UniProtKB/TrEMBL annotation, chains A, B:
The modification 4-aspartylphosphate is found at residue 55. The lineage of its organism: Bacteria, Bacillati, Actinomycetota, Actinomycetes, Pseudonocardiales. It comes from Pseudonocardia ammonioxydans. SUPFAM superfamilies: C-terminal effector domain of the bipartite response regulators (SSF46894), CheY-like (SSF52172). Residues 5-119 form the Response regulatory domain. Residues 138-203 form the HTH luxR-type domain. This is Two component transcriptional regulator, LuxR family.
Length: 210, 210
DNA sequence: CCCGGCCTCCACCGATCGGTGGAGCCGGCC
DNA sequence: GGCCGGCTCCACCGATCGGTGGAGGCCGGG
């Protein structure tokens, strides 16, 4: 029997090798591999596989953008396979057009089953992703900060005071406060420290490296 | 030729499969696999492989503890293979007795070479890990907070005010401030928000989930 | 035994923060 | 054209924060 044709996208060679091995043993045809977003989009257009197994953390452009491109081109169904499940990751992946979201610790058989299901047109959500989605629907709006609010929040996360942030953005301190108050409302907190923690938790901010 | 005998420890079946495949193709003998810390220690004692390829993020007890146990038992050389490189991760892994630290995006050939080198008794540091170590030696002091300082910092990260933290810990507000000032000194910041960000960056704090 | 580190507490200061309750301007959408 | 949302700004308040410069008690190691 000939199974579905898939394209593997992951920046870890070892993971690609593992997927190739697991899928091949189950009769799934691996049409190609990509280690970054550009190659993923190019190969998806070229080979038009049934399913693209997409990691979200890639060097350069993110897997999210690649997913959107591939879906927009109608080149394949995209099944996200990644390590982390933050609210923001799951939601954005589905928004970007992914047909499913699985975590890398999914047992091999379920992974193969997921790929087949995705190829057959089904939506494939791992239990964690399903939970995130359900909670996102039940409870809150994903906050969606405005550009200015995000800039102010960045300043706060760097430890800047309101006057400092005002200087950097060339606006008044009162304006900084206004933005900040709206950020507090959206994140449902009432101080700057909690706001930064909440934003990090929701994936609205990343931790700096140096 | 018969290569070194290794034990694979990773909670992702796909990664284990990938490693098994890559290593087998290079003549390395895979003596077993474990998906959690307990199994890792047990199998290491049982099989006494040349090298344990150890992921740090495992369900239950961490790979760090498993590493320390295996090293203490003299059961094998432990080569850490993980996704992230924070200062804290690298330093603690080496402290725990790991003979090397590689990232999962290491190309297959270098990974195999690393395993062979580790089996032969060498120290195996990926470029990122080497950089972290070098900078840690240069820039030194991992701050090392006291128990109380850590508790206060936790409160701050949860958005508590100094009076709140004082109540929770059953101490005076002045005491909270004293601890906090020392935390600021150690983390080289001068406000609570930056302290939380710095602590997160250094791995002294984790982000809560719910 | 004494030293040092950790934990505890005090009083007081200026700066910053969070919050209130407004207001006007502009650009895009209906 | 009208409306709405985002961005800007104002004055004023009480609470909190960060910092100063102390102090005493407790415990473990040299």
């Amino acid at each position: 029997m000939t199974g579905p044709v898939v394209l593997l996208v992951d920046d870890h060679p070892v993971v690609r090798e593992g997927l190739r091995s697991v899928l091949a043993a189950a009769g799934v045809v691996v049409a190609g591999e990509a280690g970054d977003a550009e190659a993923a989009v190019r190969l998806a257009r070229e080979h038009r596989p049934d399913v693209v197994l997409m990691d979200l953390r890639l060097p350069g452009r993110s897997g999210l953008e690649a997913t959107a491109d591939i879906v927009a081109a109608g080149a394949a169904r995209v099944l996200v396979l990644t390590t982390f499940d933050t609210d923001a990751d799951v939601l954005r992946a589905i928004e970007a057009g992914a047909v499913g979201y699985l975590l890398k610790d999914t047992p091999s058989e379920q992974l193969v089953a997921g790929v087949r299901a995705a190829a057959a047109g089904a939506t494939v959500l791992g239990p964690e992703a399903a939970d995130r989605l359900a909670r996102a629907v039940r409870a809150p709006r994903p906050p969606a900060l405005t550009a200015r609010e995000e800039q102010v929040l960045h300043g706060v996360a760097r430890g800047a005071s309101n006057p400092q942030i005002a200087r950097e953005l060339a606006i008044g301190e009162a304006t900084v406060k206004s933005h900040l108050i709206r950020v507090f409302e959206k994140l449902q907190v009432d101080d700057r420290t909690s706001a930064v923690v909440a934003a990090l938790r929701l994936g609205l901010l990343q931790l700096p490296d140096p």
